[in-house]
Design goal:
The protein is mainly alpha-helical. It contains six helices and no strands. α3 runs antiparallel to α4 (114-134).
Length: 213
């Protein structure tokens, strides 16, 4: 996000240009904390064979902290004009890193089928590539379905990280099933939006070319 210009009624001797945010701001610090949590989380997941309830609880705590920072860093950046180029790049990387690490660890420990991990990771990486593919035509906004998908994924993965048994173990299966459905459905919707956005962008470019001619 670029700096927002001062409103017209503020322009004058008393108006002060808004400074570009520095690298070391609270939003970027939270993003860096999330990145640093990833290797520690992986070690905790595989500690003592990977199935010790105590270590899994600590791993869940680390995962939860990472998810909480994900909720706050972007909002803080936008609300307090703390958006930086570093944040734009590091924030999505941190998001994908912690979720990808959790899914891969769970599948490696045979707690989660590999096909679930593959479906979610292919969707997440595919949508990231898709956003870059159409970025010159516009930005695909985050949808309510996408936010619901992120929340459901976080809850489902968190439940799998914990060593749950009985009815809770059955419940987490259903939560993950909902997460997978939302993952696929929102992914298809993003593909539709990208195609529409690209077609509109190409049409504008074609109209502009004819006008220039």
């Amino acid at each position: 996000m670029t700096d927002t210009p001062a409103p017209a009624d503020e322009v004058g001797p008393s108006a002060h240009p808004r400074r570009a945010p520095g690298l070391w701001n609270i939003a970027n610090v939270l993003t860096m904390v999330r990145l640093l949590l990833v290797p520690g989380f992986v070690l905790l997941m595989f500690a003592d064979g990977g199935h010790d309830p105590a270590w899994r609880s600590v791993a869940w705590a680390a995962f939860t902290v990472a998810m909480i920072t994900d909720l706050f860093d972007g909002e803080l950046a936008r609300r307090h004009n703390l958006v930086t180029d570093f944040g734009k790049i590091a924030d999505p990387i941190a998001d994908k890193a912690i979720m990808g690490a959790a899914l891969i660890c769970l599948s490696a420990l045979s707690d989660l089928p590999w096909w679930v991990t593959v479906v979610i990771l292919v969707r997440e990486l595919g949508i990231t590539v898709l956003r870059f593919w159409v970025i010159r035509h516009g930005v695909i906004p985050a949808s309510r379905g996408g936010k619901a998908k992120t929340l459901t994924q976080g809850v489902a993965v968190g439940m799998y990280i914990l060593a749950l048994t009985g009815p809770l173990a059955t419940l987490r299966w259903w939560v993950m099933a909902v997460a997978v459905v939302l993952t696929v459905a929102t992914g298809l919707d993003y593909v539709r939006q990208a195609v529409v956005l690209r077609r509109a962008g190409l049409a504008r470019e074609a109209d502009g070319g004819r006008g220039a001619g």
